[in-house]
Description:
single chain, mainly beta, Porin, GMP Synthetase, Chain A, domain 3, 3 domains, 12-stranded antiparallel β-barrel, 11 helices
Amino acid sequence: xxxxxxxxxxxxxxxxxxxxxxxxxxxxxxxxxxxxxxxxxxxxxxxxxxxxxxxxxxxxxxxxxxxxxxxxxxxxxxxxxxxxxxxxxxxxxxxxxxxxxxxxxxxxxxxxxxxxxxxxxxxxxxxxxxxxxxxxxxxxxxxxxxxxxxxxxxxxxxxxxxxxxxxxxxxxxxxxxxxxxxxxxxxxxxxxxxxxxxxxxxxxxxxxxxxxxxxxxxxxxxxxxxxxxxxxxxxxxxxxxxxxxxxxxxxxxxxxxxxxxxxxxxxxxxxxxxxxxxxxxxxxxxxxxxxxxxxxxxxxxxxxxxxxxxxxxxxxxxxxxxxxxxxxxxxxxxxxxxxxxxxxxxxxxxxxxxxxxxxxxxxxxxxxxxxxxxxxxxxxxxxxxxxxxxxxxxxxxxxxxxxxxxxxxxxxxxxxxxxxxxxxxxxxxxxxxxxxxxxxxxxxxxxxxxxxxxxxxxxxxxxxxxxxxxxxxxxxxxxxxxxxxxxxxxxxxxxxxxxxxxxxxxxxxxxxxxxxxxxxxxxxxxxxxxxxxxxxxxxxxxxxxxxxxxxxxxxxxxxxxxxxxxxxxxxxxxxxxxxxxxxxxxxxxxxxxxxxxxxxxxxxxxxxxxxxxxxxxxxxxxxxxxxxxxxxxxxxxxxxxxxxxxxxxxxxxxxxxxxxxxxxxxxxxxxxxxxxxxxxxxxxxxxxxxxxxxxxxxxxxxxxxxxxxxxxxxxxxxxxxx
Length: 722
């Protein structure tokens, strides 16, 4: 029998030694998990068995030997994390003769996109280490493809050891056997983007190990034995000389959200790492400027002041108008507009538009406070009806006496919720009247814009910047005219390659829209929103719908107030606009129009998770389904992922094989220092292709409707008294 190589013996010895320590050490107070060069929990190049705190989101940038990695990692669940990575490898073709430089060898820097998934099988216990199973680059080109099982145990409160087994890249140095054969992967012959399940935990495996010591709360020192031989980069490409399997590093936490590190890698290279860390589940409690809420003014008892409880005020001329104006003066400071108001001697109904608070329950609470402050004593029942785009969405009914009694009571938010009804908006109260000054209403905004194209195959970041003028004219409740004009000042999105898609170029011509469009009409639409029946909502939009398409869009949504489930249907006619984005459309051979449509299922799973499935026809005429999952936090952060599978084959789709990506929604409250409903939304696709593309239409119903229904209000009810 052949003897193991020296490298195999060293790998096996390091793994066994650390595994013995991992298995026998008692549980101690844990130090905080740190991040590795891949932007995931680990040492330097090697992973660890730990998991980050639930919902942690980090952006990591690392570099050594001209290998640069930018990674977004999200702790989706307490034991599950997911990562998207963009890697650039410099001097990629230096070892290839110039005459032979084709395909992947034509790049000076080779850019690669990959996805990771980690699952912590066991948490650390008294004798049990934390154990994590991971898939690295399981959807991508396969250049970084690896699988691993890693275990981490604390020997002392500030000292922990890690040992593990790796396959793929992490099984390439010191290999000592494995399971079956690992299929080879050639990035020059594959479109990438497919799940490479036939490689998982197959082929040679090797051991890795490491130690991390944290002498202070901010400083970490690391040593690791790496099982990655970097055969492609060192032997195949000559990018760097891998002299040793040992890596050494020091990291320092500059602030609670920023960590930097310096490393000596593989006996020949210096490395740097930078991590930006935050938890979207944390709501900012300091640094925000906001007005104090209106106090609840207790009523005198009927016996002490019978005149205050008199109902004769109902007969006074324009009593509703006077009360509405008094309340609007109070609500102006809260950014809440009264759409309509009506009252009887005992019940008042108010329709409000919240233009400030990202927590819808806070807007409801502030409205209730003002009603309790301003309305006559005989009015006991408050009905608050939130309105979006002129459409009433729900009705929150509460008693004034509960507000007076519970404002300062222990557990006040839970107590008032137990006495509050949330239901269908229903018919308006008798005498409900719209504020005559509310319609028609004109609004506008002017400011900078940034349009990005991130992580494409040839350039990490492309962007256009300029100025944009937006306007909106609300003719009547539910009838809205809107438009936007932009002036590009600078940018490089136009430098993207010309489309080589075999499908209709429904999205892949994006660089031409940037090149030809300087002063552009981004959109110009007329939209009508309505309530055609109980639990039903509708939208019709016509005009220049987005930068690339004009046409018409019609949508219907069924969404009961107290249901987690919603069903929708949408049909669109889209015609491709001219590249200059004026009033014209493409003609001749470039002309393109299509009818698209989707049936949609939406479900709120609770615990901050929202799911969506859209089935139908896409812009390129392909048929299929889009699957989406998002985690939305109370403070407005949203992190999600989507994938679209259609009848377009991976060869027809091109690089990436199918449409997929990550989307982020970031609230601007902290940035602006004051409450706002404004957010910044980003969609990150590994590559923009034509298969699975959908029309972009502002004002789609589900996102407008659900925020004032029971589940969403309950999620944020803790801010009712704020």
